[in-house]
Amino acid sequence: MNNYYESYNFLQCNWPSNFFCFPGKKMKKSDFIYSLKLLVFMKKIGLFATIIGATLLLSSCWDDSDDYVDVRPTGLVTVYPQTDGGFNMQLDDRTVLYPTNLKTSPYKDKVVRALVNFTDDPRGERQDIDGSEDIVKRYVKVNWMDSIRTKTPVYTTGKDDALVYGDDPIDIMRDWVTVAEDGFITLRVRTTWGPYHKPHRLNLVSGTNPDDPFEFVLRHDAQGDMGMEFGDALIAFNLNDMTNASSSDEITVKLNWESFNGPKKLEFKLRMHK
After folding, report:
1. Is the pLDDT at 134 greater than 80, yes or no?
2. Could you give the CA distance from residue 259 to residue 4 in angstroms, rounded to a whole number?
3. Which of 108, 163, 176, 227 has its CA 20 to 30 A from that of 81?
4. Where are the extended beta strands (E) located within 184-240?
5. How far is CA 73 from CA 20, 58, 69, 86, 115, in A?
6. Which pLDDT score, from 0 to 100, does residue 19 have?
7. 153, 1, 22: which is closest to 76 by C-alpha?
8. What sign does the CA torsion over 41, 45, 48, 49 have?
9. Domain map of the chain by residue range?
10. pTM of the complete model
């Protein structure tokens, strides 16, 4: 049985999920800014507050000669601050992006997952790092960036997980941003939203299987704000601090959750950040 919902089988692109249904065309900058301001407002009033954390880089990254912006992300990255105040972005296991138009990370000293729209900077050169053919450096121009709420797992309470962390249904979507890479599990999730604008809480609970430290339960606490409107959100969990695996190991992460159709499970193959 397929443990995902197909992303676009029902309620296609309804708000608040329409922010993640990126159209295949460009949008006027003014319209894009309005949509993002509305999204930020909804986060502030609590609709997305604990599921999506956003910091958006907009006008400072744009070419003023172009009235349109591509609203589609071109990558899902991990933002790593550096000791010199700069930052880089891990695109995949082999590729590190170095921004040429941003000197400091918008997220300060935080390591976060983020959606980014970037273009290769012709002034930079693609090159191996330290002569290694396994890691490639690319210089890029960041057009916009939106952070994803990034958390670490919490430990099980034993018998009280449902009470402490919630037991409300949620679905994990089959989507390019539902992925395990760089020591992170990133998920696009779908649930119902109510009229009270209370922040929903998502936690990845560890320790539920004493024999397997990489088996988790995704728990959803809707704070009593379940309704009839379905909507999507993004959440990321950092597993790099777990001491049971090294960056050279490929581990199997087992994920369990309560869906709208009952219990579900899913497995990911994951390598930690090098």
Report:
1. no
2. 9
3. 176
4. 184-193, 201-206, 215-221, 229-238
5. 10, 13, 11, 22, 6
6. 37
7. 22
8. positive
9. 11-44+54-148, 150-271
10. 0.78
What does residue 212 show for φ and ψ, rounded to 5 degrees? Answer: -145, 100
**How is residue 190 written in tokens?**
């779908």
Residues 12-19: contacts with CB within 8 Å, 24+ apart?
Answer: 14/229, 14/230, 14/231, 15/231, 16/42, 16/47, 16/48, 16/193, 16/231, 16/232, 16/233, 17/190, 17/230, 17/231, 17/232
Which class does domain 11-44+54-148 fall in? mainly beta
Share of the chain above pLDDT 70, in %: 68
Q: For residue range 189-236, list pLDDT tens digits in order.
A: 999 988 887 889 999 999 999 999 999 999 999 999 998 888 889 999
**Residue 17, CA distances (Å) to 85, 135, 168, 198, 204 in order:** 34, 35, 19, 17, 22
> Token digits for 28?
């006027």
- CA dist., res. 272 & res. 251, Å (int): 9
pLDDT at position 21 is 39
Is-contact 170 146, C-beta < 8 A? no
Question: Residue 24: CB partners within 8 Å, gap ≥ 6?
Answer: 72
Place of tokens 């970037």: 118
Helix H segments across the chain?
29-44, 161-165
Q: How far apart, in Å, are the Cα atoms of 35 and each of 28, 69, 70, 142?
A: 11, 13, 13, 19
State the CB neighbour count (10 A cutoff) for residue 81: 17
Stretch 83-104: mean pLDDT, rounded?
92
Copy the structure tokens of residue 56.
């958006």
Residues in contact with 269: Cβ distance below 8 Å, sequence separation at least 6, in sequence order: 180, 250, 251, 252, 253
Residue 108 near residue 87, CB atoms below 8 Å: no
